[in-house]
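User: My instructor asked us to take a sequence, write out its structure as tokens, and then describe one feature of it. I'm not sure where to start. Here is the sequence I was given:
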Amino acid sequence: MGRHFGNLAKVRHVITYTLSPFEQRAFPNYFSKGIPNVWRRFTASFFKVAPPMTLMYLTYTWGNSVHQQGKRKNPADYENDE
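Assistant: Let's start with the prediction itself. The structure tokens for your sequence are:
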């Protein structure tokens, strides 16, 4: 039972590479390339996503208002009640 977790099987022909955490930079090019890339991706997808979502929101609010109006009682039906 000398095998430890992570060394349970011998896998052949698989090559893995690692880089020391001391040689990595945590946020390389974060402000110079990261934020402009996020802005580019946001503007590219916004005009594909926003119109259908707006249409669905307007349809949903319209349906709720029609439903609320349909639930109301007509006061003219109860004018002569005692």
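For the description part of your assignment, you could build on this observation: The two ends are 91 Å apart (CA to CA). Try explaining in your own words what that tells you about the chain.
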